[in-house]
Amino acid sequence: MTLKQATELLDAHQYPTDTEQLIEAHGDYEIDHPNGTETLSDVFGRVGNETYESAEQAREAMYCALGHEAVGRRHYSDRDPTTMGTLGPEQVSF
User: Fold this and answer.
1) What is the phi/psi pair of residue 48, to 5°?
2) For 42, which of 2, 38, 76, 90 could close a Cys bridge (C-beta 3.0–4.6 Å)?
3) Cα Rg of the chain, angstroms
């Protein structure tokens, strides 16, 4: 499932709820990432036992707990300036 589908799944859940109830109801669903998959059980397992008053709180917890596989290339940004004292790429003007 995509992150959008996982979000819709959380939106349809009954609130208030807690982490254990979300894992019990939806833990087997797998989220597809650019670099693999992980279950909602894995994601919410990183959060600890929390209570969610709304779908928005559950979505925020899910997005914060996603593994690094969801990010793409780690520690990379073509927007960050080169660290002082290191040689970086030459700037190119288009």
Assistant:
1) 90, 175
2) 38
3) 18
